[in-house]
């Protein structure tokens, strides 16, 4: 029964994320934001919401060591999964679509946008790692730095990508499917409904992960490090696949890198503010592999000014290394 409810909770989270993303894209259109801002900020934040709510609920509503482990595992696992599996899947989509791409294996991206995302990610992620080992009395200073860096990132992204909103093949608003231009009230109502559904799904997920980990005798940290991010990162992967198939490469990769920036700044801040951000055994391998995978993509673009699909495929190798070091 625990396993069934675990899958039910994941289904609720993913359905709610889909509803939320649909609403947030329409909100971006109504605010007349350009595709770059919608992909790197609104869509990225929207699809990052499930993995953000899991640690928040685990820390605020959870009790005991297991719930704390679920939260820390979700925070460390989120950017790791995006920088490895999400990059790998993106590269695989491009390779499988090679015959339709005249510039294969290169992606048609704006390197300035993606490199800026990765630079802010490295900065935020490094601050979060430092906060893990910093004395408790200094940790709150890191919150100011983390959230301040994200505010700066949002400002720069909006400033450099402002313009008329234009989303390719945007589906009708779920709450107003018959209207070609839904009212702002319905858009906001759908977003609020999705947030409520996400909270319920995340709370059920945390409870089931705790129960299963106790039954199997596996630390909840490792279970949440693997299971939670894979499931909650599905929205980013799904959106990016769609955009890559439509040759919207900057949107696709920006959706991933923008979510990484959000996760590196906001998620550790949640842990610090709730007093639950500290180093746990087993944290080092995924953190080092995150640096390696994201760093490879950044250096590839810095020197070639392009992003190669085969470089993205290397994310799969880094994930296999993680599995090998974890299981053996």
Summarize the SSE layout with pairings:
Blueprint: H1 2-30, H2 35-60, H3 65-96, E1 106-107, H4 111-133, H5 136-161, H6 184-216, H7 220-232, H8 234-245, H9 249-273, H10 284-304, E2 307-308, H11 309-327
Antiparallel strand pairs: 1-2
| Element string (H = helix, E = strand) | HHHEHHHHHHHEH
CATH top-level class: Mainly Alpha
Total individual domains: 1
Enter the CATH topology name: A middle domain of Talin 1
What do you see in this structure?
- This protein has 11 helices and 2 strands, in the order αααβαααααααβα.
- It is mainly α.
- Strands 1-2 form a two-stranded antiparallel ribbon.
- About 50% of the residues are buried.
Please name the defining characteristics of this protein.
two-stranded antiparallel ribbon; 328 residues; mainly alpha; 2 strands; A middle domain of Talin 1; globular
Explain briefly what this protein structure is.
With 328 residues, the protein is mainly alpha-helical.
